[in-house]
Amino acid sequence: MDNLIRDIEDRNDIDRLMLRFYSRVMADDLIGYIFTDVAKLDLDRHLPVIGDFWETIIFQTGVYTRHGRNPLQVHGELNEKEPLLPEHFRRWLEIFTQITDELFAGEKADFIKVRAAAIAERMMQFVGGVQRGEISFPRSV
């Protein structure tokens, strides 16, 4: 844990969060294989894109639009290779929340966790045909 816990303030903080998150998630026993073996994620290419995604969410910069990607479609294609299950999304969210809490505290840190929960739920609805409320994700921190 870092000595000074503060809120997410800029893109560097987002990049730090994403690097630590992906390092942990790719090594996870339950979902790591989805990132390494199924998606064959290249972190050098993915980190700038996912950083743009979260920068757009947190700071409303709009930089993610330059990628011309739809996250639902990307995960739908991944789901065709390997079914993405509720337990995968729950674990993703658990790790995301843990890493955020290890690094940051404050309004934006709380916001990113709430948005991550909403995104996990929406992804599960999209790829799994699950209706809203059928799976439980935390709504607040």
Describe this structure in words.
- With 141 residues, this protein is mainly α.
- It has a single domain, classed as Globins (Globin-like), CATH 1.10.490.
- 64% of the residues lie in helices and 0% in strands.
- The protein is built from six helices and no strands.
- It has helices at 11-25, 32-38, 43-59, 71-81, 86-103, 107-128.
- Helix 1 (11-25) crosses helix 5 (86-103).
- The longest helix has 22 residues, at 107-128.
- The protein is globular.
- The two termini are 19 Å apart.
- The mean pLDDT is 89.
Could you give the order of the helices and strands?
HHHHHH
CATH level 1 name: Mainly Alpha
Q: Count the E strands.
A: 0
What would the CATH topology be?
Globin-like
Broad structural category: mainly alpha
**What integer value in Å does the Rg equal?**
15 Å
Q: What is the approximate shape?
A: globular
Annotated CATH homologous superfamily:
Globins
Q: What is the residue-mean pLDDT, rounded to a whole number?
A: 89
Q: What is the straight-line distance between the termini?
A: 19 Å
Which architecture does the CATH hierarchy give at level 2?
Orthogonal Bundle
Poorly predicted parts: none
Number of domains: 1
Strand composition percent: under 5%
Largest sheet: none
Helix content: 55-70%
Compute the number of helices. 6
